[in-house]
Sequence to fold (369 residues):
Amino acid sequence: MKKVVVFCAGRPDHIRLVRLIERLDDDPKIRCIFINSGQHSHTDILDKAFIENLGLRAPDYNLGIGSNQEDWNVQIANIFIKLTPLLKEIKPDLFINLGDMNSCLSGLIAKRLGITYLRIECGMRSGTLETAYKNFDLPEEVNRVAMDSIADIKCVYLHDYVPHLIREGHLQSSIKVVGNTIIEALDYYTQKWNIKSTVGNYDLVTFHRGNNMKPKILMYFYWLVREVARHNNVKFLCYGRTKKELDKLKLKFDDIEVLESQNQQDFLKLVAGCDMILSDSGSTSSEESHYFHKPCLILRDSTERPTTLIENNPQDGNAYLWTMDLEKDMILYRKLLYMKRDWNNRYYDAPNGRKVSKNIHDVIKSILH
Fold:
């Protein structure tokens, strides 16, 4: 029996990988070992509740890395210290991870130990032609490029992302277009929980990325949301780090509904029921907004998911990047608010596009058997 380690960095990874873990568990020729880094956890109890809400089985191992955002170097060091002896003990035939959080650097450990490394979500870049399509001002982009460069098998969501990898010197034979794991998860959970998109009476706001936690950017975000609240009700999903940084600046949203972290079911209900979205999250501002037909103002100056930008895709795009100019951003906001919502979903660009876990499972079987 072949041993396959599936390494989840945090909550977004659990959502993306739940269907694959279930499929591997059902394969009699594979022993699937699910390791949770715990990077998004403040407590084991919250992490356990989130995983249970997804219907995902308990991890075989939980490293308990924690969400230490200030000392990212300590966080990375702890991943190496805790995961290395575990992989030496397990001796897996294949190591799988995805994403761009610090825990994705676990792929380096697998490579140093001589373990075949399959990486999902490869080829996503947020730069421009002038920057060789890379934006190393973003720590997530550094992680993406570094881990893509050493992965033996590179699974990509869209054919659009393949040229980035070819341009960086990767062999075509190492690249597999498998479809988007987030879309597969959305298909599954919207059916399971009977969630349907409706046009609500509020805008949904999320804001959490590390490079957005600078005082100047937080001040602008605060005034932008206050201005948006003059036009529509706002529900602001405020995560722990964001709340901490806003409190430092004494910025309070007294007249806006501020929500704490949600489980996936409640979060999808918020997305499905809103009017439009303002977010700096990769998946929320792109896949989830596009899937539920919600216009989106992306609270970033670049995105690794340019497919849904209106400037790149006038027919099926649903999003603009913010400009950090209040007058210009409110013009974009009004354009989005009144735009038609009849775009086609661009994220089914793969063979069997809604059976992504099967596509990845087929790739895994071709490697192992």
